Amino acid sequence: MKRTWWKEGVVYQIYPRSYMDSTGNGIGDIPGIISKLDYIKSLGVDIIWLCPVYESPNDDNGYDISDYRKISDEFGGDTAFDELLSEMHARGLKLVMDLVANHSSDEHRWFEESRKSKDSPYRDYYFWKPGKNGQPPNNWTSFFSGSTWQYDELTDEYFLHLFTKKQPDLNWENPKVRQEIYDIMHYWFRKGVDGFRMDVISLISKQLHFPDAQNPENYNKTINAHYANGPRIHEYLHEMHEEVLSKYDIMTVGEGPGINLDNGPLYVDEDRKELHMVFHFDHMFIDNGPGGKYDPIDLNFIRFKEVFSLWDKRLKKQGWGSIFLGNHDFSRMVSRFGNDKAFREDSAKMLAMLLLTMRGTVYIYQGDEIGMTNVAFPSIEEYNDVETLNSWKEAEANGRDMNAFLKLVHKQSRDNARTPMQWDDSVHAGFTLAEPWLKINPNYKTINVASEERDDNSILNFYRKMIAYRKSDDCLVYGDYLDLAPEDSCLFAYARWNDQNKYLVLLNFSDSDYAVPSDIDTTGYDSAISNMDGFNGKILQPWQGVVLKKQS
Ligand code: ISL
User: Fold this and answer.
1) Which of 36, 385, 392, 424 has the fewest Cβ atoms within 10 angstroms?
2) Could you give the percent of the chain with pLDDT greater than 90?
3) How high does pLDDT run on average in the chain?
């Protein structure tokens, strides 16, 4: 297994709108991030993944880019970005940007030109099609509700948008489009950026005959059958590797719906020369029913563990994994996988143990290091996310019980992860002096960085301890992995080992004491790190995690 910085590094993800506002307009910005770099460094992380900061009309908070070479003035513009990069490098931190290349904004110059006429030299930068009997070209529905086709009167044709109608899909079949994207990547790499997280990269190659979906109501099936992993995806990524990625010492992580155990290695197998890592969603969509996230099912813990084991097994010889339990698109990790009520602190720390003892590159989402939780705004008016708002409208149109739907929004909205960072207990949580763009979670009085800094036993200080612990032995990064109790309904127990060391990790995912099964032999091991005091080798307290290290 080849050793590299991006395998050993721990990544901290920042959603810039919600991190720190330096100007007092209620919106987080780059100077705000710069003011927190010492804090970030103090966590022990090595890499920051910054969600999009480019110029954007913000229909989807930056995932709709109108100029790929310009940093949005709202975030501080190009000067602020250059300063961020140099301040980060001065501290030994690397910067990974978000590359949103499946679609642009409809306010990008390419799209504005493309719209103008069927003969525009930019027409083929996007997918334009005539309708069928006054209807869209096919029955595909967007990730964010409604048809994926938007009619445009000017030329009497429809254009494709897998996300909102302000996010038209770029046509990667057109070599000029690919060259434009490669040029943009060169531009940022030459500036010194250390990598890209590639947004919905699994969607860039399209099925050009645009077949109707057979089961449009089963959204996951449709994604897999028609949107993701199109016929030329690996050809494009290999080309991107040859033209751009191979020329720099950078890291890449591709994101995407439809990435699964069968095709995952095709993206990340080192010999294929495409990407370094992918984010799959097998554990993140685990509570989605056939109708998607607003049709949730109970979390199946055995399946949850199986996802980690299957992916580890699949990638151990052919690539490298990404370990994460939350990001800006999902509800808060402690609310989903832990217990954010009676055992918030214990379970948040235990989940940190899971993240930091798995094989793969670890990604920590802002706020998880202080155990931030889901929010439950009393009215839909207080939500901002376009996906949440569109799902709300669709539910209303379908006559659903809207009180019940509000409860689903509380559970599933992406805004759960987007409420501003809770820095202290002052007004607006120290995030801003103005009214914030999205309300602060009311629990900021008790859950905030300042109070956790003062408490040696806080979640924050436990993260610092766990990150340092992971880094103390690269067995925890590269060592082998085996689930020791795959059928156990409460315990996640696994071994990590290499030629020098061996560890047992025992995590009690329950609200009760739990006896370690007798076939897990802990003799000859020392308790190395735990999220709470006291472990007698036999009984784990509720949400207790322990790492045991074999005596040498
Ligand atoms: O958000 C999701 C589930 O709640 C996902 O289906 C998500 O839409 C998908 O993973 C793609 O996400 C990425 O691209 C979107 C953007 O809205 C997300 O924020 C981004 O992470 C479109 O660019």
Assistant:
1) 424
2) 97
3) 97
Find the mean pLDDT for residues 154-183.
98
Residue 473 designated active-site: no
Helices 402-412, 386-397: crossing angle, 10 deg rounding: 160
Determine the Cα angle at 458 with ends 38 and 546, to 5°: 110
Domains of the chain, first to last: 5-104+175-379+419-465 (3.20.20.80), 109-160 (3.90.400.10), 380-418 (no CATH), 477-550 (2.60.40.1180)
Residue closest via CA to ligand 1's atom 1 equals: 329
Cα(329) to centroid(ligand 1), Å: 6
* pTM, rounded to two decimals: 0.98
Structure tokens at 207: 């099925």
User: Closest ligand 1 atom to the C-alpha of 330?
Assistant: 4
CA proximity to 414, closest of 333, 329, 494: 329
pLDDT at 219: 82
Phi-psi region of 76 (alpha: psi -120 to 50; beta: other; left: phi over 0): left
CA 248 to chain centre: 24
**CA–CA distance, 84 with 91 (Å, rounded to integer):** 11
**pLDDT at position 536, please?**
85
Q: What stretches of 330-386 adopt beta strand conformation (E)?
A: 361-365
> Which band of pLDDT confidence, cut at 50, 70 and 90, is reported for residue 358?
very high
